[in-house]
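Field: sequence (string)
Field: structure_tokens (string)

Example rows 1 and 2, in order.
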Amino acid sequence: MKNLIVILFLILISCKNETITKNGIDKTVYEMWNNFTISNPELKKDELPESWYFNNNKEDANRLAELTLSGKKKASSGLYLWYEEANADLPKMGTKQIITDFDGMALAIIETISVDTIPFNKVSKDYAEMDMGTNIEPLKKWKKAHWDFLRAQWKKVGRNRSKKCL
């Protein structure tokens, strides 16, 4: 009987619950949205928002998500070029999105409350602090992090960077 318990325990801990749906979205995204709409019934008819993670690597994605959860990160930046290339509209006020960790697990629902197009070289210290989630040299850190990230994005589409880019 003792061996049977050990075997069952090993079988149970070796089984992994499948958390990804057929369309590649983690089940926690659906669960979070469902719970949110139960608490906010006026949104029940709204479609599942887009889900995404910050940046392009696990360390930064998870760190930025944690800063969002703690309330320190209150803004996000994107490259206007992305919208041009995709012939897509800029985000709209009131749009909700689900922030995930790098592996796709839902962590937070955010809402767009303002959209601005600001050239790279005109970003303010206050905005950088909201985006970076720190008040220690936020503009310096923002420029370094975003310049490096944007360099890779511009390179993908064969364009040169510009400090006047949006």
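Row 2 begins here:
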Amino acid sequence: MENTRKDVQGISRARFLAGAAAVGLAGAVLPSTSAAATGGRHGGLRHRGVVYTLGAGETPGTAWSAARMRRDIRVIRDELHADTVDVTGDDVERLTTTAAEAAERG
């Protein structure tokens, strides 16, 4: 929808890009608060999350199964060392089963 009001003034594209560049440069040049507080040491990520999306699957080999889901949740915890699993999808029963398994596994 085109803005047809004559009294409305917005920001120009050039001004927006200049501001975005300044913010990006400041973020790259200035030390972060956590790095400054720890004397410049970087501890890496403190939290690791995985989005686990449920689907019906396009083939029998990719269809949802409880055994595969349990194996995936174990891998997410034990091999990826994720401490958060965000379960998404459209089948309430599969969502509930998967979320319960993820909660039980910690």
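free_text_note (row 2): The chain has four helices and two strands.
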